[in-house]
Amino acid sequence: MNDSSGPTAKRRKLQPLVAQNQRKEDAAAHQGRVRTVPHVDGIFPSQQCQAAHPDVRATDGPSLRLSLSKTLYLRAHETDKVRDAVRSIAAKISSFEISFDKLIRLTNEDKTRSFLARRVAAGAENLTAILAELHVVLRKLRLPLFYDPPIFHASFAWRVLLNAEQVGNAFSDTELDEANAEHGSALRKDIHSVTELCFKCRNDVQSFNVR
């Protein structure tokens, strides 16, 4: 029973939860890049990556990392589930080779960066099978899926875009045609062996060997 004779309680206005936990971003500290989703404490950006290490035919080159997801913003309790899924997939697959067929230009969804990348040719079917298994877990957690259709690639250069009008000028069609004419033959001979799957969360990268 309420006592109407007592003092009336004052309602306090709650501060927005996200605003309390967001941090101010300094673009200068990230080579001009700006977060499209502000950092929130307790939510960690993660990314599933496919690491393709040079095999004996390309021992002098650096290892490659091919993304198998968009950047995922995971809450702390979701991180273990996604990491365990990556580990489980790695344990079921065998090593396979990938090669590339051409240089392509890609732009992120927010049109803040354009990339130059090598497009995967041989090995794309293997990557598609891995992606299908990963999507099962992402759907259960209601997380965003990879692009459809997927374009598997290894990026090696990028430019910051100040506005959407710069998308076509970041790496022009003429530059791409000239680069493919000059480097296409060598690119198609560049073969790598996939040996592990990786799970990246913040600055921590965990690697899981394939069979």
TrEMBL record:
Biological-process GO terms, alphabetical: U6 snRNA 3'-end processing
Superkingdom, taxonomy of origin: Eukaryota
Gene3D superfamilies: Cyclic phosphodiesterase
GO molecular function terms noted in the UniProt entry: 3'-5'-RNA exonuclease activity; lyase activity
A Pfam family annotated for this UniProt entry: HVSL
A cellular-component GO term for this protein: nucleus
InterPro entries, sorted: Usb1 (IPR027521)
Region (Disordered): 1-31
Keywords: Hydrolase, Lyase, Nuclease, Nucleus
Protein name, UniProt field: U6 snRNA phosphodiesterase 1
Organism encoding this protein: Mixia osmundae (strain CBS 9802 / IAM 14324 / JCM 22182 / KY 12970)
Lineage per the UniProt record: Eukaryota, Fungi, Dikarya, Basidiomycota, Pucciniomycotina
